[in-house]
Design goal:
Layout (H helix, E strand, L loop, with lengths): L4 H24 L7 H25 L4 H19 L6 H22 L7 H32 L1 H9 L4 H4 L1 H20 L8 H8 L4 H31 L15
Helix pairs in contact: 3-4, 3-5, 4-5, 4-10, 5-8, 5-10, 8-10, 9-10
């Protein structure tokens, strides 16, 4: 594809229109996000540029894959921990859950021979599973926190009757895990009918046959489900065992 200055300027203008439309629609519906969509895109551009440089270096010096994986895990755990900060012990639980989910799914895909051991495929499967583990952590933490606050009376009642924290939060933990996995389950069930996933399209553009691309996509989908299941269950189990309940949601004091 031609990436002349004029074409790059055209692409930048098109992306600006998409971001502007997103901001305008949200603003029209009273969702005040300010410059966050534009900031998010700007960060993505800078980060992708940096990652492209690091990836190019990794392809030349495969040993740098350790640095690449460490960067992905550290970024994911930092983000997930921040999102779970409202839960007692949530930061530590989210970090451990994301590492466990991403590492488990990636390792099994490699050990079972579902993904090759070359740098490109290892980074591809690791990036996808770690990213989805982070998403699962965020969804689980948010659902658990909202449900725990809404069901505080139920939890306290069970604790008063002698239940352990894990027993008192069992229903809330199950609901949180289920809610975290529903989007992935829906996408997996409708793959090829509603959407063509990025991994499938990317594999086709990368030169794989449709059969090869399909195999890679199914591997990705199965790995994502595993990483999210491991992450969600570990996170919910760890925070559910805490003897400390989440703090009630604070409401702003009227001026």
């Amino acid at each position: 594809m031609d990436y002349s200055p004029w074409h790059l300027l055209q692409i930048a203008g098109g992306i600006a229109v998409l971001v502007g439309a997103t901001t305008a629609i949200l603003h029209a519906h009273g969702v005040r996000v300010g410059w966050r969509p534009a900031v998010a895109i700007a960060r993505a551009i800078v980060q992708l540029a940096a990652v492209s440089v690091l990836l190019s270096a990794t392809l030349r010096w495969p040993a740098l894959i350790v640095v690449f994986l460490a960067l992905m895990f550290s970024t994911a755990t930092f983000t997930g921990a921040r999102r779970a900060s409202g839960l007692p012990g949530g930061r530590r639980a989210a970090a451990l859950a994301i590492i466990a989910g991403g590492a488990t799914a990636t390792s099994l895909a490699l050990v079972l021979g579902l993904v090759g051991l070359d740098v490109q495929q290892v980074i591809a499967i690791a990036g996808i599973t770690i990213g989805n583990a982070m998403s699962s952590s965020t969804l689980t933490a948010r659902k658990y926190l909202a449900s725990a606050r809404a069901g505080m009376g139920e939890i306290e009642g069970m604790l008063a009757l002698g239940a352990t924290p894990s027993q008192a939060t069992a229903r809330i933990r199950r609901d949180a895990v289920r809610e975290a996995l529903i989007p992935t389950m829906d996408q997996t069930r409708n793959t090829g009918l509603v959407t063509l996933p990025g991994a499938f399209v990317g594999a086709l553009f990368g030169g794989l046959s449709p059969v090869g691309a399909g195999i890679f996509q199914v591997t990705v989908l199965a790995s994502v489900m595993l990483s999210q299941a491991v992450t969600a269950t570990i996170l919910s189990t760890m925070v559910g065992r805490s003897p400390v309940l989440p703090a009630p949601e604070t409401t702003p004091t009227p001026a």
